[in-house]
Records
---
Amino acid sequence: MVNKVLLLMATAVLALSCSQKTKERDPNTLGEFSAEHATDAEKNTNSNFKLDMNRIALSDVEIGVFPFINLSHGLEEMNKPLVREFDVCFFPIDGIMTPLEGNLYKTSISPKRGEDFSQHYFEKSMAKYLDSIGAVKVFDGEISKDEYDRYHKQDPNKGGEGDMGYAGQNIKFWVLRAKNQGNIYIQYHAYNAGASLNILQEADFTQTISKVTAEEIAKELSENGKAILYINFEVDQSKISDEGMEIVKQIGEALNSDKSLKIAIEGHTDKTGDPSKNKILSNDRANAVMLALVTDGIDQSRLTANGFGSEKPLIADDSEKNQAKNRRVELIRIN
């Protein structure tokens, strides 16, 4: 009898040892054998897993277009959501708020008029849908006060629409490796009156800024009769930034290269805000450019300045990307 008990104990110890060795093959990594082999506890609890998207099972479920999720019945966006073609958002990876970059959507959610908000219904609806498209929950918990104090000043959107990630605030964080859409990160926080939702489609940064030269400005004026420039000003002011002054310097060099050249300086804005204030601001900015050129030695008789606000959009003013293109300064050749 004693021998039999000892044999059973030895077998149990051996099984436990094998189990531990299996886990040690890649400790603390989500999707040790890929997501479908992870246990429910591994998927649904705040664990110490490191996030390795290559170990997440690839989903071929059709999820539509960004931001990929429609709000459930009776809910709506509380305000205008934050939608950026490229931005940063912090997600709780291994309990550490980690910055990820890409196409970003952040919104605050509230019940429609006459409707009640159910935190349980919202969270269950989100979980059921995300699970159905192959997403995996990798965090369900709170970040510490120390962690909040460490990261929050790094977040340029902290305090903005759909913001979350405060100490003591529950966050549910899911990841999706979509066959045709790449890596997608979804996090939400719900309470008894509403919720916040963040969705980021991971993307690499593409540099679109290049140095504006006097030669390029002169060529544009000669061939097209105008040059479109993006001069940086202080926010809601006509003061030209240091980067903007570098472009103004190139305009001056282009004018000095052709002493007969005369130009009209036109300021333009997008449609955001009050139209009358935008027109005044665009006019002030055009005049600021003219004054800077005159200060740099250009004869004022060769220059005129006028602001048009949002009256002459370059393209449809229907997205943040297009709005950025409409906020511009145009140089028009007038001789």
---
Amino acid sequence: MMEGEEKKTIDAEVLYQLRHDIRNQLSGMILCLEQLRFELTDPPPDWQYYMDSISDGCKNINKFLDEVK
């Protein structure tokens, strides 16, 4: 394997691991958020806004990870 090919392989492995680790953290955050939504039967509007913002942020990060090759 040539030096450039080896670097690409290492970079691909590092990228895969980073994406995996970030997605694991996002999964935990999404799970906690869904549990919070379940427990708060009638949250105040500002709380709903915060939960929606967190959810949107998680979706955007996941979308970004899908686009990173």
---
Amino acid sequence: MADVSRYIKDLDYEHCKQLIHIVFGFVLLLFPFVSIYSLLAGSVFVLILLRYIPEESVLYCIVHDNPSYYPNQPKKPKIRSSYNLVVSITILLLIGAILDFTSFSYPLYVISGAFAISTFGVSTANYVNRKIAYKKYTLTLTSIIVLLGVGIITSFLSSSWIIFWQNTPITYGMVFFVSVIGAITGALFESIPSNIDTNFIVPLGCGMVMWMFAAFGYFVPPLQMSFAFAFSLLLGILAYKAGIADISALLSAALLGVLIIGFGDFFWFILLLMFFILGGIFTKYKYKYKESIGIAQSEGGIRSYENVFSNSTAALCLAIAYGIYPEYSSLIIFAYLGAVATATGDTLASEIGTTAKAKPRIITTLKPTNPGTDGAISVLGEIAAVLGSICIGLLAYLFGMVDNLLLSLVIGTAGGFIGTNIDSLIGATIQEKHFLSNSGVNFVATFAGALISGILYILMYKLF
């Protein structure tokens, strides 16, 4: 291979790459006028061409982005191959072509939207992000906002272009809905640290998530969707600025907010936010002491996407179910209450209980153990769990989510308290054997808390 180091001094490879991606994105204009099979064939042809670019050329260095092509840089950049971007788009087109022979379908407007987000949205954001050149890839708040804005607009326009020319019976409201979901999903995948090239995972992630919501056939009206997006993004930015969430958590909260406000209600999201606010506050409680004994949250208690989704997936599923199955609204609301109460109770039990002077005990044997041990409980922690659950039950009543204070307090507290102790039980057994991580335990426990509250509602609603 010829020495390409002389080009490094004169070219910003990353920015050249992003300009190539943006130009490549204009291929979307052809989508309505050719078959998906022709698009697939063209995509495969491009892959073949990219594989056979001469290795000594500057274009090869830009397209394939091998770190060995940066000999003068002490820190090699993360691989972000244009080839992988085309591979990902080819996979989406292949899925669409295969499903064309079945009773299922993968709408071309969804593939187009994912393509637009991955080229125009991601590439524009990367172009304005000055931290990417020859350094470890780092997203900034500015680049995230650019990605979201450009991604939503270009996804909506490209999808609308297809349904207009192909006369597809899809409303523009649905197009806007999946465009917002896709842009947030793409930004989230872009923000998550991974050894997998984001140029590969972002189009696939966007395409799959957008397809899933398009298949529901249910969408949130554009005005309501716009409000949910702006409100949840603003709160996520505030959490990031306050130092209680990183970029991935910011985007996770935005995605949750859009869906929960859209399918549920404004106060549904506020209730879930109370969990994050209380968790953030009590994570800082006696933080130096918890740090001194090795049980403090890492990075000063800043939450990441793992913490957000492990504690909120149950609530998200219930909010979506509420929008789709309004006939079961009361049951779903109380199950939602149990999920949020469990997340809150468990977090407060962990953050407050570990500061108790008395040694905690393993929930399965009640033998004394060290603070922070999986499955450890304490009197202080159990009290904190009850108080956190009561707080959620009270807020649900004050927010007008339920109209019976006693029922809200009883079911919310019971679901949260039992869910918290299920978390401890799983921690002492399954997690101890390394079958589940802490995030996995939280995920299971919140669903358990939702189930407990749902069952209690069925048993008790006739009494009240």
---
Amino acid sequence: MLKFSFTMGIVFIVISAIFNGAWVDGQQQRGNFFSETDEHRKFRMVIATYSGSLGIVFLLIAAFIYFF
């Protein structure tokens, strides 16, 4: 259960970072910002927020299992 929780936490954090655009440089981020609609940007941020939250929850579960 510990490995599963930790792995799922990392996977959800990576998904959140991808949808958030955390791993692109400034020119790519500027290009993405001006080429997408407000609706698409809101959708990306919702996915990033939910997956980031799930990632944190799974990592907290893994820490709880590990320490207790």
